[in-house]
Each structure stands twice: as structure tokens, then as C-alpha cells.
Amino acid sequence: MAMLEVTNLHTYYGNIHALKGISLTIEQGEIVTLIGANGAGKTTTLRAICGLVKTQGGTIQLESEDLNPYKAHQIVYKGVSMVPEGRGVFARLSVSENLDLGAYSLPDRKTRDADLEKVFTIFPRLKEREKQIAGTLSGGEQQMLAIGRALMAHPRLLLLDEPSMGLSPILVESIFSTVKDINRQGTTILLVEQNAQMALTIADRAYVLESGIIAMQGKGSELLEDPRVIKAYLGGQ
Amino acid sequence: MTVSITPQVHRSKFGVYQVVQTILGVLFSIYLLWRIYDVFFGHPSYGPDTWARFAISGIILGSVYALIAIGYTLVYGILFMINFAHGEIMMIGAFGGYFVFEALKNIPAPTALEPNLNFLNAHPIISVFFAFVIGMALAALSGYFLEQIAYRPLRGAPRLVPLISAVGASIFLQNAGQLLFGSQRRDYTNPVILSRGAGWNIKIGAGIVTVPYTGILTLVLTLIILVSLYLLVQKSRMGRAMRAVAENKTSASLMGIDVDGIISRTFLLSGALAGAAGVMWGIHLGLVYYFVGFIPGIKAFTAAVLGGIGNLPGAMLGGLFLGLVESLGPGIMGIDFQLKDVIAFTILVLVLIFRPTGILGEVLSEDKV
Q: From the CA of B225, how many Å to the nearest CA of chain A?
């Protein structure tokens, strides 16, 4: 049984047909990445999975349960967390309040302190900044906060939307190795990236989106060597 | 190229508008200082006892404004709209308390000493408690349904649309009030111990100043409500969710927060505060009718803008400030007391022109606008 199974997904923004029948599966424990140009529908796919965009056709099933009837805030309770594009941290709240809100969906608050420790071992930087207002953090720190906040909800499936956006190459590398670590500890990951090189390197499997349809799919390492991918997304000749 | 840009930025800081603004500000401050000197030391028209009376009534009025202003600010903080029907919610609360008093007045509770005693006077504390509970509950429910009916269907619409809907809802509720309760002004029948005019007498200067019990009740209750509200917003799980929704609705829903639920609860809360203010208004000032919420509603809106709309401490400060300005202002400016509303609304206009963000307000970030 696949962790997530998306079948023939269609969405519209007004008259614009954004996703034209996307199908993809994610198995337990995998890192799967969606790559593609701007406007290909990567973010829309993520937003549809976590309920922020209404689907018009197709199904999204999490462990055989249809997610369609649920609203965005209910899907969090099913074990799906998303780190949105542009991080979406609560800029006027403190770092610790942001992390607290991450655990909003957990009815049992007893595990909170242990979870907080876990996030702080992954991102020691956040512990130093615990009392600071999130809006005053640097871009990299905000990205750490956004990921840490999503982890506070104990997700089984973590959706990451452009975690490398606006970060320096060194930070991008450290964020990606953290993503890999999080995956090793048992969280399934669906990663949307512009930085195809990095994404394909850490991903088990990948899908290539082109204007709302899936153009290619395969293992990350295979797509890295595919001449069409190299030409279109990796800047090669 | 960059060199030529920098001086332009500097020049715009000292534009004609800023110069005029500064000059006007200085002239007004000088005039105000002269008036204050004149009325207190030059040609004192009132003794210290009268000023104390003004100040006391200003603080009491101001605390009621503060309660209503918080309702505007809570809703604005989350939906970025002005709930112009908020004053009518207060009117509904005032009527709730009024009918509780009327009902309890007719329940006999005779004792051996006083065979004609009614429940209202036999148990004044319970009666006042009931008046507040019913008034707040009715107002909270009205706020809740107001949002469901008049604002929720317009959630995705441009910002002007819910504003027009709010004005419409305000007129509708006024007329509904007139239809249901009649257009006559009704006297609020307080328990005897809370009769208007009764209070602590303090000797100040040449005269005796009365601090009315109704005013003390208003102040104490306002203080309790403000402290609990602060704890709720800053410390509780719901308060944290409210602040998250105020800042970023998408992120909030990704945390598992039910955004619509939080918006509903915000309207319940702001309605309850307006209801409490309505009952206080009735008990302290003694009159209730269908139009009773309109002027305090607009004054409290002024207070909220004054303090910086969307800012809770700002609304409290703004309310208190407006109450004091209204009661002390006419005396200081040497104008007629009937013109106190002119002072209040002049302040609104001045704040909107010179400091649109209010006293404690901050410049809205791009994504909030």
C-alpha cells in the first residue's frame, strides 16, 4: 500500500487548467521530488495534497483514505505537514511560539518538550534564537524554523516547497542534508525544487512536471543522467 | 547613478507637507499649553473639585470606550475589516441587561422586615451578575450570527464589499431594535444600592466629589475583563491560534488551526465585550434605546484608530484617552460641553491625516495589506 497515491488530479485557477491529470505515488520512507519549470504545477500539486487548493477531478489517497472531503486544517491531523513556499513563519511571534503552533494538532501536549528538544538537536541555531521574534531571523534560520515547526506535528508525510529558495549555496547544502536526515529517521518526504541537481541527488524517485502534466519519471540517479533532464533542468548541453 | 538617488530621498523628508505639518503641530501645542495655563492658573473657571469630577467621568467613559474599541481591533486584526455594526451589538447587550433587571424587578422576594422587596433589590449582586451574563451572551451570539450572515459569504471579496455589508448590517440592526423594543428611551432600573448619584464622597478643595458606585463597578469589571483578555490572547492555546490567524491564514491552517472557527470565536469574544460595555453603559448612564450603540460605537472606533487599529493595548489606551479628552477637553478649550463630540471627531480626523497608523500602530507590512 502506497503512503500517498494521487490519481488523475485536475485543478483550475479560474479558467486556467493548472493540473491536467497528475498521477503519482509515494511509498513509505521515500524521498520523492517534483521538478519542473516555473508554472509547471509543482506548488499546485502540493497545495492540492494538503487541501489548500480545491481539486476538480481525480483522487488523493493517504494510505487508502480519500483526502478529498477534508479541509486543510483537518489534513494536518492525518499526518501530512507542509512547509510552504516562502516559509510562512509567523513573523511577529517568537521562535518558541512558532514551534508551539506547529504542535497545535497534537492533542497530547506531554510530548511537546521532547519534540522541542528533537527540533533543537536538528537545528541548534533555533535554540539560540528561542525567544527572538521570527521576523528578525535570517532567511536560512526562517527556513529551519519552518521545517522545525512542521516536524512538531509528527508528520508521517512531509511536503517541502522550495526549501532552497533564496538561500546561499552552503545553506542549501546543509538544509538538504538535514532533509535527508529527517527522512532517515522515518519521515516520508515529497520535495518540490527548482534546484533540480540537489533534489535529484537526495531523492529516491522523481517526477518531472511540464505545464500540468507529468513528462518523465524515474529514479533520482537515473534522471540525473538523462540527457533530456540535463538539457532542460540541469543547465547542461 | 546611485549618488543622485540618495539626496532625493533626503530632500523628500523635508517636503512642503512635512514643514506645514510641523508648523501646525507646534502652533497647536502652543495654543493647548496656553489654554491649560489659562484655565488652571490664569483665569480658573472651575475649582479643583470640578476638574476631579470631569476626570472621574472621563475615566469611566473611557473604560467603556476601551471595551468596545477592543472589539473593533480584534476583528480588524483578523479580517482587516471594520465591523461597523459593532455599536449595534453593544445596543443588543444593553437591552439584554435591561430586560434581566425588568424581569427580576417583578419577582417578589419579601422578607419579614420588607414585605415589598423584589429579587432585584434582595439580591443585587446576583442580579447584576445575571444582567452581565445575559447581556454578554446575547451580544456574543449576535456577533457570531452577524459574521455568519453578513461577512462570511463575502470572505473572498474585495475589502470594500464587507465594509458596505457592515454599514448595512448596522442600519438593519438599528431598525430591528426599533421594531422590537420601540423607539422610546427606557430607564435602566438599577438595584437601589447602585442608584445613580449614590457613591463615595471625597472632599477635594472646596467641594465634595462623588465617585458613583456604578462607575466603580464599571471600572472594576473593565479591569477584570482586560486582564483576562490579555491572558487569553497572550498565554492560551486559543489566543496563540488567534494571533497566528491574524498574521497568516494559510500558514495557520497548515498548523491544523481551523481558521473559520477562530474567526467565529473572535466575533463571539468581541460581541461579549461589546455586550459587557452595553450593560455598563445602561447601568452607569441609565438610558437604553435602539440608537444607544451608534455614538459610542463610532467613538470607540475613533479610539481604536487613535491607538492604532489592530493593536490591543492601543485600543485600551485610545479609549481611555478619548474618554478623558471628551470630559476635560471642553473645559480646557473653553467651549460648550455640548461640543464634546466635535472634539472627539476632530481628533479622529487629525489622527487620520497626521498619523494614520495611530499612537501605537505600526506600518502594515506588505503581505498584511
A: 24
> Which CATH number belongs to the domain containing residue A224 in this structure?
3.40.50.300
Q: What span, in angstroms and rounded, lies between the C-alpha atoms of A58 and A22?
A: 8
Give the C-alpha separation, A36 to B236, whole Å. 43
Q: Are residues A117 and A231 in the same domain?
A: no
- Using the Cβ of A99 and the Cβ atoms of chain B, whether some distance falls under 8 Å is answered with no
Residues A5 and A90 in one domain: no
pLDDT tens figures, A151-176: 999 899 999 999 888 888 888 888 99
Q: Name the residue type at position A48.
A: A
Site from A13, A43, A82, A90 to mutate, B interface, most B CB atoms within 10 angstroms: A90
**B259 min Cα distance to partner chain A (Å):** 8
B254 contact A CB<8A: yes
Count up the domains in chain A and report the number.
2
Q: Report the complex ipTM.
A: 0.90
Do the beta carbons of residue B78 and residue B270 sit within 8 Å? no
For an interface test with A, give the residue of B255, B365, B368 to mutate (most A CBs within 10 A).
B255
Q: Residue count of chain B, please give it.
A: 369
A52 and A159 inside one domain: yes
The arithmetic mean of pLDDT across residues A48-71, rounded, is: 89
A127: containing domain: 86-154
